[in-house]
């Protein structure tokens, strides 16, 4: 499928073509003049930027698309929101006594300082802390969805500087798939969640039934890690038109379920109970003799041990559909029907990740793979399972492409040769979602994927490119732990809650204020897109790249040029492009010279590859499991894992199993509801919470809470009411959205609203979901984020009016 540029993009682009024959770095970097739409890109895809009187006034999609993507309209908000950090700022109590700071983080005034003062202040304390406690005391594993780009990569740039300084503590894994990415290698020999899927065209051609198991692609495909190629949303549009049977299994009637309308069957289990539901289906398969025994014998190991558990030979509890119904709330008869439907037709089980971002999250995808193995369709076109159809266009076929490299965290290239920098990367790392545990328990031992490890003693934190105050669980516990380090620096374009809880805040440019490039499609490499600077840096904002280069100069004279390898922003891009051109030549993609490319300001579309379009995951394994074994110890799909057996973990047994979570519907006390924290339609996590899109979802000027009609009636709550949601960990103020679109017994507050804690009452005025969630690991196998685990109570809010201050900069800010 060839991408069509939207009409506007095509006309503007064609008119803008200029000849530029000489190497002219100065002209490259000039902001584009008024009156011409500038092509740039973000996570939400290639975008055209309209300027008026030097101001960015609109951003729109640059690729033709059928399903609208609201996030593409946020450009002007991103640049001009009142929430921008304008100047370097320091906390008063810190400035007064940097070695032994006064006051409390998050509870102090900020003072404006110059960039030089900020650099010097950070440098002196960084050196003192590093000398006293060693490199492991410096946490630079700063996690998060910084903006797109191959040069302006906040975390990498931070780590590059910290490497020059002598090393740091880093992180393992991510919040997204913490559980799945650790369990899957034990089961199928690869992380699975970040891999090319059986392609969208193959699914359209061969699947009869598509199951969206906890999958909300109409939201989640609005973005990709690089930049979306927009193919995923087009696929779901085509799937809807195809007339295939689509079954959505989700406690929420999500945007995707609504999108499919009467083309979809919606099945709503209680959250966190999918393993029980799948066991019920698996039991029905065995009962009806519908499981594919030949497949299980040839391609899997340990099925017999699992079947003993399934049939209750181990524990006396057969996992029948009737047993499952009591746990998951889906009628037994429906589970039996699902078993029959899945077995009778070519079925693709597409699974999302929300259901593994939970306590015992490892079990979900392990059980899903087991179910798919019992159906025997793994490796057939359009059959089996897929764990990345909803993310970064995982089913868009890989193109023959000129692929861009990116800046690296270590200094290489010419300039590091022959210098005496003691470059060192992460000296140790811990699972990313265990940060609060690490702060609380320095030196403490913990288990991770078969190893005993120890937490570092963190004394300094520098966070660049992540929203840890929104992304981490149990915000009040985080705030307490956050008092422990001696220095917290935040590099941010915005006054997020994290910035408000820092000692030093550095104003950073948005991607609209700098030059960069990106590929689209994490798997497809469909386009190479220029990310041209659209407006000058706002206020005193600087690029992360320049900040860390300046800091490197303070490490030692000449450090700046070692950091930059002597290259300017545009020179880096020029070299990256040249590398892409080399692979482009091998792939026979015509790519103009850099200066032409840059001045033309048009994307380059890569070549389609017929073979890649027909890619079927596990086809070669299916063809010959001996010649093409999986990367597991047995070379097969491990339904029972001896490796995991050897770890002896109570919270991750050696075959997929139902483990009752600590906080879920089944353990709720009267009145308690289960909290879900799905990803929002109109945000990327916390990003754009301040934007005009907030008007589309805010209720009573608060983050909405989805409440089932029955649950709301019992509590006298109506749509539009302010509601207090609370548990022992905290309380939030939210706006009621009363609906039948959520399973009774559950509520949903989408993750990502900026914490905005009222000093007097402790209520989060902006409905930050993580104020309520449990900060526990998925299990000691993977230590993944379990943010989708919590019970809450709700009541109509009748207290005093609490004005929202989430997006206000601090006084003087
Ligand atoms: N309860 C619950 N919690 C969750 C989840 C959940 O489902 N439920 N989901 C989890 C998941 S999957 C994830 S990935 C995380 C997401 O967590 P994050 O990725 O940390 O969330 P973002 O809001 O995208 O944070 C990115 C931050 O980087 C800043 N930024 C953008 N560009 C730049 C730049 O160029 N330089 C610098 N210095 N800063 C920049 C933005 O302003 C923003 O504050 O949240 C996790 N938390
Ligand atoms: N617009 C937008 N797109 C995004 C993001 C964003 O913040 N905004 N974040 C990006 C990132 S970093 C990631 S990791 C991905 C996240 O992708 P996912 O993790 O897949 O997204 P979620 O919204 O957490 O969950 C998807 C669906 O699972 C359902 N669900 C939750 N718990 C359960 C359960 O126990 N059982 C079942 N059956 N269903 C359940 C939710 O209701 C939701 O509809 O999305 C990416 N795309
Ligand atoms: Mo994520």
Automatic annotation (TrEMBL):
Coiled-coil blocks: none
CDD domains found in the cross-reference section: MopB_CT_DMSOR-like (cd02777), MopB_DMSOR-BSOR-TMAOR (cd02769)
Cofactor note: Binds 1 molybdenum-bis(molybdopterin guanine dinucleotide) (Mo-bis-MGD) cofactor per subunit.
Positions that bind Mo-bis(molybdopterin guanine dinucleotide): 145, 357, 471, 514, 544, 770
GO cellular component: outer membrane-bounded periplasmic space
Co-factor(s): Mo-bis(molybdopterin guanine dinucleotide)
KW Metal-binding (keyword) present: yes
Gene Ontology terms for molecular function: electron transfer activity; molybdenum ion binding; molybdopterin cofactor binding; oxidoreductase activity
Domain Molybdopterin dinucleotide-binding: 673-786
One Gene Ontology biological process: anaerobic respiration
N-terminal signal peptide: 1-29
Cited InterPro entries: Asp_de-COase-like_dom_sf, BisC, MoPterin_dinucl-bd_dom, Mopterin_OxRdtase, Mopterin_OxRdtase_prok_CS, Prok_Mopterin_Oxidored, TAT_signal
Residues covered by the Molybdopterin oxidoreductase domain: 84-554
Keywords: Metal-binding, Molybdenum, Oxidoreductase, Signal
Source domain of life: Bacteria
Protein family membership: Belongs to the prokaryotic molybdopterin-containing oxidoreductase family.
This protein's name: Trimethylamine N-oxide reductase I catalytic subunit
Organism field: Terasakiispira papahanaumokuakeensis
């Amino acid at each position: 499928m060839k991408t069509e540029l939207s009409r506007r993009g095509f006309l503007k682009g064609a008119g803008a073509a200029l000849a530029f024959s000489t190497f002219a770095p100065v002209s490259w970097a000039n902001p584009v003049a008024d009156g011409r739409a500038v092509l740039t890109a973000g996570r939400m895809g290639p975008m055209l930027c309209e300027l008026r009187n030097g101001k960015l006034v609109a951003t729109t999609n640059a690729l033709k698309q059928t399903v609208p993507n609201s996030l593409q309209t946020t450009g002007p908000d991103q640049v001009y929101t009142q929430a921008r950090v304008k100047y370097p700022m320091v906390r008063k109590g810190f400035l007064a006594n940097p070695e032994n700071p006064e006051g409390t983080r998050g509870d102090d005034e900020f003072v404006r300082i110059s960039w030089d003062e900020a650099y010097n202040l950070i440098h002196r304390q960084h050196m003192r802390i590093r000398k006293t406690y060693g490199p492991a005391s410096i946490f630079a594993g700063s996690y998060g969805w910084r903006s797109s780009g191959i040069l302006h990569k906040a975390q990498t740039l931070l780590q590059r500087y910290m490497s020059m300084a002598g090393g740091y503590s880093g992180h393992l894994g991510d919040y997204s798939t913490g559980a799945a990415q650790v369990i899957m290698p034990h089961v199928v020999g690869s992380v699975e969640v970040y891999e090319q899927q059986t392609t969208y065209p193959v699914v359209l051609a061969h699947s009869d039934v598509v199951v969206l198991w906890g999958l909300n692609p109409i939201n989640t495909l609005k973005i990709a890690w690089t930049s979306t190629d927009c193919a995923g949303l087009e696929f779901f549009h085509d799937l809807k038109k195809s007339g295939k049977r689509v079954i959505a299994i989700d406690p929420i009637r999500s945007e995707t379920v609504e999108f499919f309308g009467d083309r979809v069957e919606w099945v709503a289990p209680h959250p966190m109970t999918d393993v029980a539901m799948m066991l019920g289906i698996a039991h029905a398969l065995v009962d009806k003799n519908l499981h594919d025994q030949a497949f299980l014998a040839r391609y899997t190991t340990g099925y017999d041990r699992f079947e003993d558990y399934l049939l209750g030979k181990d524990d006396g509890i057969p996992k029948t559909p009737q047993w499952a119904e009591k746990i998951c709330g889906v009628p037994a008869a429906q589970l039996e029907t699902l078993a029959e439907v899945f077995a009778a037709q070519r079925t693709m089980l597409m699974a999302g990740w929300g259901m593994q971002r939970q306590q015992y999250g490892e079990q979900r995808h392990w059980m899903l793979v087991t179910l798919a193995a019992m159906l025997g369709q793994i490796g057939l076109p359009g059959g089996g399972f897929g764990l990345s159809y909803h993310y970064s266009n995982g089913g868009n076929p890989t193109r023959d492409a000129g692929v861009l490299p990116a800046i690296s965290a270590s200094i290489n290239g010419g300039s590091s040769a022959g210098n005496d920098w003691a470059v060192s990367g992460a000296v140790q790392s811990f699972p990313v979602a265990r940060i609060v545990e690490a702060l609380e328990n320095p030196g403490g031992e913990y288990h991770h994927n078969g190893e005993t490890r120890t937490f570092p003693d963190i004394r300094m934190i520098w966070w660049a490119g992540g929203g840890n105050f929104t992304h981490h669980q149990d915000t009040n516990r985080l705030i307490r732990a956050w008092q422990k380090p001696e220095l917290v620096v935040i590099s941010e374009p915005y006054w997020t809650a994290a910035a408000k809880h820092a000692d030093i805040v550095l104003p950073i440019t948005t991607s609209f204020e700098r030059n960069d490039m990106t590929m689209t499609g994490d798997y497809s490499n469909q386009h190479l897109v220029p990310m041209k600077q659209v407006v000058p840096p706002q206020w005193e904002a600087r690029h992360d790249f320049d900040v860390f280069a300046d800091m490197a100069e303070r490490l030692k004279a000449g450090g700046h040029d070692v950091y930059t390898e002597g290259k300017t922003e545009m020179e880096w891009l020029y070299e990256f492009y040249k590398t892409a051109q080399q692979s482009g030549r091998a792939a026979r993609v015509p790519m103009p010279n850099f200066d032409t490319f840059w001045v033309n300001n048009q994307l380059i579309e890569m070549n389609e590859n017929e073979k890649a379009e027909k890619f079927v995951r596990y086809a070669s394994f299916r063809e010959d499991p001996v010649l093409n074994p999986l990367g597991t110890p047995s070379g097969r799909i491990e339904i029972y894992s001896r490796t995991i057996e050897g770890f002896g973990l109570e919270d991750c047994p050696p075959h997929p199993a139902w483990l009752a979570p600590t906080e879920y519907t089944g353990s709720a006390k009267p009145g308690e509801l289960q909290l879900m924290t799905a990803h929002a339609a109109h945000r990327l996590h916390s990003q754009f919470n301040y934007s005009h899109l907030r008007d589309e979802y805010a209720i009573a000027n608060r983050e909405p809470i989805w409440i089932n009609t029955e649950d709301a009636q019992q509590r006298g709550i109506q749509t539009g009411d302010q509601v207090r949601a609370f548990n022992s960990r905290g309380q939030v103020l939210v706006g009621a959205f009363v609906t039948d679109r959520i399973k009774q017994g559950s509520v949903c507050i989408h993750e990502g609203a900026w914490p905005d804690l009222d000093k007097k009452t402790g209520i989060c005025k902006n409905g930050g979901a993580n104020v309520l969630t449990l900060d526990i690991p998925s299990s000691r196998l993977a230590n993944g984020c379990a943010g989708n685990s919590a019970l809450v109570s709700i009541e109509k809010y009748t207290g005093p009016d609490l004005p929202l201050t989430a997006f206000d900069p601090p006084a003087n800010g």
